[in-house]
Amino acid sequence: GNSVTQMEGPVTLSEEAFLTINCTYTATGYPSLFWYVQYPGEGLQLLLKATKADDKGSNKGFEATYRKETTSFHLEKGSVQVSDSAVYFCALRANAGGTSYGKLTFGQGTILTVHP
Amino acid sequence: GAGVSQSPRYKVAKRGQDVALRCDPISGHVSLFWYQQALGQGPEFLTYFQNEAQLDKSGLPSDRFFAERPEGSVSTLKIQRTQQEDSAVYLCASSLAGQPAGYTFGSGTRLTVV
Q1: pLDDT score of A94
Q2: Spatial separation of the C-alpha atoms in residues A35 and A47, rounded to whole Å
Q3: Count of C-beta atoms within a 10 Å radius of residue B64
Q4: Do A91 and B45 touch (CB under 8 A)?
Q5: Structure confidence at residue B98 (pLDDT)
Q6: Percent of chain A with pLDDT over 90
Q7: Cβ-defined contact of A102 to B108 (cutoff 8 Å)
């Protein structure tokens, strides 16, 4: 079946540090890949996405590149801010036929804390 | 409203009690999903509706879980005879056409079974 594995957390960084959160996946076919973010007390929000190999998703200074050869979709940001403190989820949607209709498989989440 | 509204935000139930969790999706959103998020884990799919039709309920963990969306708008997730392992945050998401890029998630209902 489909699965998503994220790096162990939590991750604690100082402001302006470089961020990497690793994500690898297992899926049949060619899934679409997503990063969601959950700020304290709020619902999950889509951060970025990529729908095919070598696509780069980007938003708010975050980037992730769909690497089919390594089945990875690592999240990066060059300079984190305190306001980036949140839980980050990697997710995939399988594109196997007409029954996928948007059902997502999530990783376990990575807690990011950024200190001033 | 502008977002997906879930109620209650918090629910404490005694083991064996029945509970009902409500989701008000964004008006006009055809697709509606329920996910279960255990502590420290990512959300796991429970069930999917397209309008009033429940097209996939493969993620419901047992026959104690039941979901409905009778008029294609508001949805209710019902859990009968709650057990401690049912303790989790239950998330609802809606979208125009079932595409994750268009999902809007609610803030969830945190269920604690004691």
Answers
A1: 81
A2: 5
A3: 14
A4: no
A5: 58
A6: 78
A7: no
Q: What is the mean pLDDT of residues A38-45?
A: 88
Per CB-CB distance under 8 Å, the chain B contacts of A59 are: none
Sheet with B5-7: strands ordered across: B5-7, B19-24, B75-79, B65-68
CA distance A78 to A107: 23
CB-based contact A44 B43, cutoff 8 Å: yes
Residues above pLDDT 90, as percent of chain B = 87
Q: What would the pLDDT profile of B11-39 be if each residue is shown by its tens digit?
A: 999 999 999 999 999 999 999 999 999 99
For the record, the structure tokens of A49 come out as 């996405």
* Residue of B35, B42, B45 lying closest to A109 (CB–CB): B42
**Would you call A43 and B44 a contact, using CB atoms and an 8 Å cutoff?**
no
CB atoms < 10 A from the CB of B10, how many?
11
Q: What's the CA gap between B96 and B102, in Å, rounded? A: 7
